[in-house]
Amino acid sequence: MEPCRPLALLAGSLALTSILVALSTDYWFVAIGPHDSSHSGLWPNGDKHPVAGYIRVTQIFNILAALCGLVSVGLLVLSCIPSLSAPGRGPLVSSITAFTAALSIMVAMAVYTGERWSQPQQSQIQTTFSWSFYLGWVSVPLWMSAGGLGLFVHCSATQPGYDTL
């Protein structure tokens, strides 16, 4: 049982790191033309064009996932310190918030992927997803792993009985 708590903390920390790096970088989408290349992210820096709705949805769900992930990792850290943790509920709440983060990031990534995939291609420009985009997708199984391991920690913990009263 005890190896699952550090593994859940490791998976949650990696997921939180990957989503924060994905959110803060501008390499979600790359366009390579005959003479130049360009890349874009979730935070357009030009005021010339309004931000598309699918970008806003992706931003909101990514931020929601990062906040849920921060709560999840924080609760896992607190559950490792017996004097600070709530009796028996830290890993359960941590796993619920990890699953919520996984669902939020999955919605964000599905919306972004679907919208970018359906955009028309130009013959002279090759467009591909880039490493920030893939970091976002990598965080989904990491959040699922952190949630599953946290749930296992909660279920395998000894429940206090009458003898502890």
UniProtKB/TrEMBL annotation:
Keywords: Cell membrane, Cytolysis, Inflammatory response, Lysosome, Membrane, Transmembrane, Transmembrane helix
Spans through the membrane: 60-80, 92-113, 133-153
Domain of life of the organism encoding this protein: Eukaryota
GO biological processes: defense response to protozoan; inflammatory response; killing of cells of another organism
Listed GO CC annotations: cytolytic granule membrane; plasma membrane
Membrane topology category: Multi-pass membrane protein
Subcellular locations according to the entry: Cell membrane; Cytolytic granule membrane
Main location: membrane
Gene3D superfamilies xrefs: 1.20.140.150
Signal peptide bounds: none
Family note: Belongs to the PMP-22/EMP/MP20 family.
Biological role stated in the UniProt entry: Regulates cytotoxic granule exocytosis in effector lymphocytes, thus acting as a critical mediator of inflammation in a broad range of infectious and non-infectious diseases. Essential for cytotoxic degranulation of natural killer (NK) cells and CD8(+) T-cells and for the activation of CD4(+) T-cells following infection. Plays a critical role in CD8(+) T-cell and NK cell-mediated cytolysis of target cells and contributes to the cytolytic activity via the perforin/granzyme pathway by enhancing exocytosis of LAMP1-carrying lytic granules.
Protein name, as recorded: Protein NKG7
Species name: Molossus molossus
